[in-house]
Amino acid sequence: MWTDGDSTDEITVRDPAAPEDPIVAFSGASETQAEEAVSAAAAASDNWAATTPDDRDTILYEVAERIDANRDALAETLTREEGKPISSGRGEVSRAAEIFRFFASYARSATGETIPSSDPETLTYTVREPLGVVTLITPWNFPIATPSWKLATALATGNTVVLKPSSETPMIAKQLVELLAEVGVPNGVVNLVVGSGSTVGDALTTDERVDGVSFTGSTETGQHIAETVATRGIPIQTEMGGKNPQVVLPDADLEAAADAAISGAFGGCGQACTATSRLIVHEDVADELTAAVVERAEALSIGPGLDDPDIGPAVSAGENETNLEYIEVAEKEGATLQTGGGQPATPEAGYFVEPTVFTDVEPGMRIAQEEVFGPVLGVIEVADFDEAVRVANDVNYGLSASIFTTNMAKSRSFTKQIEAGVVKINGTTTGSHVQMPFGGMKASSSETQKELGQHAYEFYTHEKAIYRSDP
Ligand code: NAD
């Protein structure tokens, strides 16, 4: 059942490539409506937890099939409101299907353990039980993949949910939730709240009926949620920002390193938490690598996502202004602009910014420390491997990192020393496999159980240790 929002917050969805005419505008949910969503999830909780694993697996697998069957329509919605190139939109929708398919099987495989008992008369084992009601809060940059991996994991393990997507991308979230209802997910099991974070956020996270919170978004919001929910002692998962380095040593394949830097820094208009924002290069190859990166950056096409360019627009006017502000800050701090640096001449409308490369970036500059979340890459020169690792680690964040080298010992040493939750050897900082755990360190993550991978169900379940001595 859908209800109109009754707050005074206006949610306006725009195509960031043609923002003059809003796609749709409506009132966001109020605090009372957020509480009603929690009530609905709480009321449905026992029945959903009592469904068999087979039923949950079947229904979530069916969600995957429906997502695949509706791929093009879902991708179009996604691209219209988020802006990414339509081929990336289709890729993300297919990924969402893959996620539901993979995590559906958690319903049957999220197991406890049988553990050798110290007492021969006692059987000792653990069981996993759903938390109950979980609140899922998601950002706009992967607006179907991120809700999908939280939803699929939570539902497979028997939880009911309240999903609050970003106000920039509510349409794709609504389509996803409609699709869940179509395949037979019962009323109250999944509840969508479209509303401003400042209006509904606290109601969705501090309500005593909420048994867990999984958040993905900025570090600032994540820390706010962690602080407000901390006293309740419920599981909280916060996956947040990044300032991801790609290190390049002199023995590296420089062509491959340049390709990876381009894809990592400018894919998705730099709007990935794992985007490459620092290219930390050995001084012996810095000029050659920079030239290769600049040449590739200048060859990238920019345009509306539906035209399938290399780079679409930033998601919003605010994000685009932030990109342009950071470019100004970098120039003021003394970095040298190699290419890009402003809005392209065409397209004229839309939140476009050119792929931008700065050299002479010093590790302490704001452009080297703060998350820009746009297509801006800073090249930092270093004298050796040790300095590269020191610079790579010298930020608050610790999400993803990569190194390009043919030296096995150096790459092994990098994996040990680097402070990042995802580490790539000769690969981009972006991209991950559903069967691999995903999450960061330091200010990038609360470092509870990671998302994705073989054990993501642990966050969504209580573990009970059972000692069974039969009479
Ligand atoms: P954001 O923090 O502004 O918003 C994220 C979500 O939180 C949105 O749904 C928003 O409405 C909600 N929110 C805002 N205030 C809230 C409050 N007080 N209480 C509860 N919810 C509230 O982030 P964004 O701009 O949507 O996304 C970009 C950020 O997300 C970047 O920092 C990026 O690095 C990060 N991100 C991280 C990951 C990861 O896995 N580490 C993945 C994608 C994006």
Give a brief rundown of this model.
This is Aldehyde Dehydrogenase. The protein is α/β, with parallel strands linked by helices and about 475 residues long.
Query: Can you list the ligands bound to this structure?
Result: nicotinamide-adenine-dinucleotide
- Classified by CATH, the class of the largest domain is Alpha Beta
E-strand count: 19
The proportion of strand residues reads: 15-25%
> In the residues, how many domains can be counted?
2
Residue stretches low in confidence (pLDDT < 50, at least 5 long) are none
CATH fold title of the largest domain:
Aldehyde Dehydrogenase, Chain A, domain 1
Full CATH superfamily name of the largest domain: Aldehyde Dehydrogenase, Chain A, domain 1
Shape field: globular
Q: What's the arrangement of strands in the largest beta sheet?
A: 12-13-14-11-10-16-17
Task: Look at the helices and sheets and give the structural class.
Answer: alpha/beta
Rg measurement, Å: 23 Å
Distance between the first and last residues' Cα: 50 Å
Q: In which range does the helix fraction lie?
A: 25-40%
Number of helices: 15
CATH architecture of the largest domain: 3-Layer(aba) Sandwich
Mean pLDDT across all amino acids: 97
Q: What profile does the largest beta sheet have?
A: 7 strands, mixed
Pfam families: Aldedh
Keywords: Oxidoreductase
Protein name: Aldehyde Dehydrogenase
Family: Belongs to the aldehyde dehydrogenase family.
